[in-house]
Design a protein that fits this description.
alpha/beta; Quinone Oxidoreductase, Chain A, domain 1; Rossmann fold; 7-stranded mixed sheet; globular
């Protein structure tokens, strides 16, 4: 019995040493518009770290901006953060999670075929999962953080500007049972129809309809506006829509500088909130709660994932997504 235990231990240590030396295939985005493959040594696992074999990684708007050269950051060396996969190896202090578990994970370099993540940023998904692309948890964690920070009150009237991937996740997650009316505004009819399916009371195509005029004529000014487009000028629309003392939630990531009407913000006494993950008091809890809510069906991504690409086609994938193709909502790299 003692010999067998020693033998199992030797195999475990030997395998871990092999993994520690393993060269994994990763990418970088140092040159705008170009993705470079490279071999990377991930190094030894820390006691609380997990090595994940990547099965899927989402293409986020931040990734697209990095690819286009709009973002200069160390992230360009290790892109990818919406990983899903299978645990390959665990650190000695990880606990319940084990090799072979299917997980969602938040870790740098998730566009590589392996990546590391801290144990508190890894959560088990259903072990029968085959379609890994539907279990990206990091974007949902951002939505959980945003909703938690916003503190929607019973009876509030809410408007979402921007029904892309994140705006539609927000639409799924909002407490519609006690919102008196939910408006969703976008310029894409297909996305607006999904917003309607996910619980929006009124959908408005702002190219065809003056959304501000329509909402004010129907409901007056609203209590909360969630700006989820990250586009120039949307904060002005939000400001016009809000009542005095209302909440402007800047959820979208605005990469470029822009002018905002702070005078109107002041005179209306607006409460401005920027619920990026940096605002969260515990993003690991947001992440774990996101997976729990996905398991409950509160968030469902099947209708949001419109395009998938093979890992070796990642250059083609980013070039395609950056062109803003029709019918696109979310793209995922598969492994």
């Amino acid at each position: 019995m003692l010999f067998q235990k020693k033998l199992r231990l030797w195999h475990t240590v030997n395998r871990r040493n092999e993994m520690n030396k393993m060269q994994v295939k990763a990418i970088n985005m140092k040159e705008p518009g170009k993705i470079m493959f490279r071999d990377v040594d991930l190094g030894k696992l820390k006691p609380n770290e997990i090595l994940v074999r990547t099965k899927a990684c989402g293409i986020c708007k931040f990734d697209i901006n990095a690819f286009s050269g709009k973002i200069k950051d160390s992230y360009l060396d290790e892109p990818g953060h919406e990983g899903v996969g299978i645990i390959e190896e665990v650190g000695e202090e990880v606990g319940e999670l084990k090799p072979g578990d299917k997980v969602a994970a938040l870790g740098r370099g998730a566009f590589g075929n392996y990546f590391k993540a801290s144990k508190n940023m890894v959560a088990k998904i259903p072990q029968e999962t085959e379609d890994f692309e539907y279990w990206m948890a990091e974007p949902v964690a951002c939505v959980v953080n945003g909703l938690r920070s916003t503190i929607i009150q019973p009876g509030d009237t809410v408007a979402i500007i921007g029904c892309g991937y994140m705006g539609l996740l927000l639409t799924q997650g909002l407490p519609k049972e006690y919102i008196t009316h939910l408006f969703c505004i976008d310029i894409n009819d297909e996305r607006l129809e999904l917003a309607k399916e996910f619980g929006a009371d009124t959908i408005l195509n702002s190219i065809q309809t003056d959304a501000v005029e329509y909402i004010k004529s129907e409901k007056g000014e609203v209590d909360v506006v969630i700006e989820a487009a990250g586009a120039q000028g949307t904060s002005d629309i939000a400001t016009e829509l809000l009542r005095k003392g209302g909440k402007l939630i800047i959820f979208g990531h605005h990469v470029e500088k822009e002018l905002v009407d702070m005078g109107a913000w002041h005179m209306k006494g607006l409460r401005i909130l920027n619920p990026s993950p940096m605002l969260s008091s515990d993003f690991s809890k947001d992440f774990q709660d996101a997976v729990k809510l996905m398991k409950r069906g509160t968030f469902a991504q099947k209708k949001l994932i419109t395009h998938t690409f093979a890992f070796l086609e990642i250059q083609k994938a980013f070039s395609f997504v950056s062109s803003k193709p029709p019918h696109y909502i979310k793209g995922v790299i598969l492994y």
